Amino acid sequence: MSILIRNATILAMDNLHGSTPFTGDVLIEGDSIRQLGTGLTAPEGATLIDGTGKLVMPGLINSHLHSGEALFKGRYDNMPLELWMLYSYPVLGTSSIDDRIIYLRSMLVAIEALKTGTTCITDDLFESPAQTLSQLNAAVQAYDDIGIRATVSGHMIDRPYMDTIPFSREFLPAECQTRLEQMTPPSAEDFIDFAKAAYREFHDRSGRIRFMVAPSAPQRCSDTLLQAADELARQWQVPLHTHIVETKVQGCTGPAHYGKTLIEHMHDLGVLHSGVTIAHSVWVTDRDIALMGDAGVSVVHNVISNQKLGAGIAPVRKLLDAGVNLALGTDGICSNDSARMFDVMKAAGLLHNVSTPDYSRWLNASEVIRAATLGGARSALIDNITGSLEVGKRADLLILDLQSINFLPLNDIRNHLVYCENGGSIEKVIVNGEIVVDSGRLTRVDEKALLAELRELMPAFLAYHGKVEQENAALAEGIAAIHRHCNGMDLGIQRLGTDSAWV
């Protein structure tokens, strides 16, 4: 199958053009871009698309999301991360979720993502009380069916809950501590065996699905698990995807547990290198940033989620200056409440303007677009195949209508994309050379039928989850006390905005 797009405005994000638009043609053959230029000849039988008045750009890449939260979208508000996790990632009273719910839940995320311009996602999947290969397969199958590119994980935690949160023994109720201490997480060996089986089963499915290794966070994983996971990631050349210092509570965790920051702990373990992607990095120190830059890690900036959960402002300019690769993500679908990457781009372009009066250090639109495309591909270790429009790369791209209200009047296209566009101008979404969204319609699946099926299942699911929420509410007062303590609220310390989180 061939597609020729003629006379379009092209935003290639490649080494030659960067974020400077130019006029030209794009020839797609099979799953890849065959030619970029002007006056290109269409092969026999090719689909011809008139690009006049259209913008062709790389598909957006959501570099950090948790599809498991999709059924809680719009459910929670005004909770810091640790409190919010009691209900979105409950530890008490859970049971395995049916595979069909997981399939539909994943499809819900993929539908919104594709229709708003995201061609590639990194989904860090967690299931409570434990994930099965069958559950992971349900998510993978949804992504395969709809036609999106995805890197998926089996989320790893092998440390007991009490050991993952500082001051838990000081603040959590004694009866809850007893119950939590009776719960035994899977071992490091169990997780490594699971990862090996998942890699064999899912990696490189349909040329679009990849598996990654995702130890949850250094405070939630033993050193044994972190190092074993890193060994697999290096062997398979896939990301080691983790979370570090999203909140002030987590910022207190490293010194409390290890006598050093969590980044320093990762460095000392030898698990800090260019194959590592770190979500958040809000509460990193200057030494942390230097270590991260020297290692060449990627950081996913989850700007909307960090605001909703009150986590703080990541020191993005410092990270970029140090040589860290920047990507963007929505984070969880109920700590952001959507999978829309254009929302994330706008928030990333605006938030840092209030973190410092030095406007030379604010993010510009080109930097934001790069983080949402090539930077995201780099974080998933697939920048050799996607993230920019280049000959030989996979044809993952968007066609937008420059005649839409979002581009009127047409000034700087990059500014329009970051500050004006919301996905409403998208006419076509192409992944792996295939048109998967055409004029707002998904071409591979019956969206209406899938969503109707999910609606029918939701009452029973929410009734189950409501009982789980009630059970985990027993921990809320203690977790709230830990949050107040780590943020200095019990000492009367004021919260002030700075260019790196809070003081």
From TrEMBL:
User: What domain of life is recorded for the organism?
Assistant: Bacteria
Which family is annotated? Belongs to the metallo-dependent hydrolases superfamily. ATZ/TRZ family.
What CDD domains would the database entry show? Answer: ATZ_TRZ_like (cd01298)
Q: Which UniProt keywords apply?
A: Hydrolase
By what name is this protein known? Amidohydrolase
Q: In this protein, which residues make up the domain named Amidohydrolase-related?
A: 55-436
